[in-house]
Amino acid sequence: MLGVARRRLGSGCVLAQLAQALRPAAAAAAAPARTYSAAAKEITVREALNTALDEEMSADPSVFLMGEEVGEYQGAYKISKGLLDKYGPDRVLDTPITEAGFTGIGVGALTMAIDHIINSAAKSNYMSAGQISVPIVFRGPNGAAAGVGAQHSQCYAAWYAHVPGLKVLAPYSAEDARGLLKAAIRDPDPVVFLENELLYGESFPVSAEVLDSSFCLPIGKAKIERQGKDVTITAFSKMVGYALQAADILAKEGISAEVINLLSIRPLDRAAINASVRKTNRLVTVEEGFPQHGIGAEICMSVVEDSFEYLDAPVERIAGADVPMPYAANLERMAVPQVDDIVRAAKRACYRAAVPMAATA
């Protein structure tokens, strides 16, 4: 785990980078379809996160990074490579394995030693009648990580998204990671920034615009990764890639799937989701987390509330198995959604296959 914080300088506030929290916001307007512009180069998600941190630390001297192995070791996945040499030990701090401790330090850099993100950071703005803002970015692992232990292979997006006062972001591509991390660092509210460790080494095409130091993505706006007319598939983090693979398979069978990359879990872009469902008349939600009280359940309810009369088929939820995450890599794979699960759900929604519905993978 790692953390970043922003010291209070004048009217500025704190920023702690580790797992981040979200605050409820008003429903966002539908996001226009966005695709990659002409790619200037390809970068990995690891490089996107590293450059975003570097640029924001350079732009704002009150931003500092702390966490386990972020300094001398340059991060377990080399996300903080070069930052200690560039900014020194006062702004890049190695800590013991004490998440509660350095999270409290991060929040305390603003006012006092507030102990926990959920119990205090998320509530400080409300309890102070708007006088205290807590700009903490809490970066943490999210989703299956291939046999590294159950504690590192679970998707808790729904946990954080349940808490008023927090913002929850979940990037997929290098563009997402770079643009959302910069937005999170600049945001006055506590943000939970959920990263999938298996995506760090993946390369994505990025444009010159994305590589510009001023590039930033809006929080609360989803992105249409692929246009379609027959079924809407919503996903976030690594599952976006799976949804896109499923869409390719479905296209060969004459099913046009629209894939929505949620990006922001809280606030959730309900307007973009409902606009897509009103076009396709079908919905499949995909997540690695547990099905009960999950992100997919919230999306399904949003569509039932706002667009029920547009549905031509029952909504489909694809989620992880409702069991503790296994340690063994082969069992872990069985416990989380796969591309075939998404394909089957989409075909059911389009009445192309007589396969029983299921809320789990």
Describe the protein.
Helix 8 (238-252) links the parallel strand 10 (231-235) and strand 11. The protein folds into 2 domains: 41-211, Rossmann fold (3-Layer(aba) Sandwich); 223-350, Rossmann fold (3-Layer(aba) Sandwich), CATH 3.40.50. It has helices at residues 45-59, 83-87, 99-108, 117-127, 157-161, 174-186, 208-211, 238-252, 270-280, 295-307, 329-335, 339-349, and strands spanning 2-6, 39-44, 63-67, 92-94, 137-141, 168-169, 191-195, 203-207, 223-226, 231-235, 257-261, 264-266, 283-286, 316-318. Residues 8-33 and 111-115 have low confidence and may be disordered. It has a 5-stranded mixed beta sheet, with helices on both faces. Helix 9 packs across helix 10 (295-307). It has 12 helices and 14 strands. By secondary structure, the protein is an alpha/beta fold. One of its GO terms (molecular function) is pyruvate dehydrogenase (acetyl-transferring) activity.
What's the total number of strands? 14
The helix/strand order is: EEHEHEHHEHEHEEHEEHEEHEHEHH
Q: Give the fraction of residues assigned to helices.
A: 25-40%
Please give the alpha-carbon distance between the first and last residues.
28 Å
Q: Would you give the CATH topology of the largest domain?
A: Rossmann fold
**Sheet with most strands:** 5 strands, mixed
Low-confidence stretches: 8-33, 111-115
* Count of DSSP-assigned helices: 12
Percent of residues in beta strands: 15-25%
Whole-number count of domains: 2
The CATH class of the largest domain is identified as Alpha Beta
User: What is the strand arrangement across the widest sheet?
Assistant: 9-11-10-13-14
- Structural class call reads alpha/beta
CATH superfamily of the largest domain: Thiamin diphosphate (ThDP)-binding fold, Pyr/PP domains
Q: What global shape is seen? A: globular
Radius of gyration: 20 Å
> Can you give the mean pLDDT?
84
GO biological process, one term: pyruvate decarboxylation to acetyl-CoA
Catalytic activity: N(6)-[(R)-lipoyl]-L-lysyl-[protein] + pyruvate + H(+) = N(6)-[(R)-S(8)-acetyldihydrolipoyl]-L-lysyl-[protein] + CO2
InterPro entries: PDHB_mito-type, THDP-binding, Transketo_C/PFOR_II, Transketolase-like_Pyr-bd, Transketolase_C
Cofactor: thiamine diphosphate
